[in-house]
Structures are given as structure tokens and as C-alpha cells.
Amino acid sequence: MKTAITQNTYDEVSRLVECALSADTKKQAEPFTKRLEFLRSSSGYGGYLNCVFGDLISSTKHASGKVADKERLSSFARTDLYKLEGQISNATDEGNDTY
Fold first, then answer.
1. What is the pTM of this model?
2. Are 49 and 86 in contact (CB under 8 A)?
3. What is the 3 state secondary structure string of the chain?
4. Contact 57/40 with Cβ under 8 angstroms?
5. Which of 7, 38, 74, 85 is most exposed, with the fewest beta carbons within 10 Å of its own?
6. What is the pLDDT of residues 49-96, one digit of tens each?
7. Distance between CA atoms of residues 48 and 61, nearest Å
């Protein structure tokens, strides 16, 4: 099980989260959240990293589209993104994820 992500993966996740949060509707955000789910399920992350990734996906889904209290909900997603940032490995490419 992987316990870290690469900078490249983090950059993609960050972009996907921002795209989902800026979508006008949940339906428009769906391709971005589906890609996040795919990245999580296909990468074999374990432990804390898997939990943070799951929380990030959930908070992003809740904050996407037109929702009441969008700023507060978006801040939860960005906090989870910050936690994920702390799990970046020193690897320079996808082939060097830490196991």
C-alpha cells in the first residue's frame, strides 16, 4: 500500500478539486469528482492517506455546485487538500511512489 503521493498526483488532485468547487452545478462537477474517486481507488493508497483522500472527495462533493454556505464547505475541502499536501513524497515521478 502506498503511504505517499507524488507532486504530480497532488497537482492533478488540486486542479480537480478547484474545478469541482468552481462548477455551477453538481452535475458539472461530477466528472472532476469521478476522476478523484478513480485516482483514489486505482492508486492503492493505504492508512492515513486513504482516509484523507476519502475526506477530500466527500467535502469536495458537498461543496460543489450551488450550495448554501459554500465558502464554509469549500474551506473544508481546502483543509483536506492541505492535509493531502503533507503526504507528498520526495519522488519526482509517478513510478517512485512510496510503498
1. 0.86
2. no
3. CECCECHHHHHHHHHHHHHHHHCCCHHHHHHHHHHHHHHHHHHCECHHHHHHHHHHHHHHHHHCCCCCCHHHHHHHHHHHHHHHHCCECCCCCHHHCCC
4. yes
5. 38
6. 999 999 999 999 999 999 999 999 999 999 999 999 999 986 444 444
7. 20
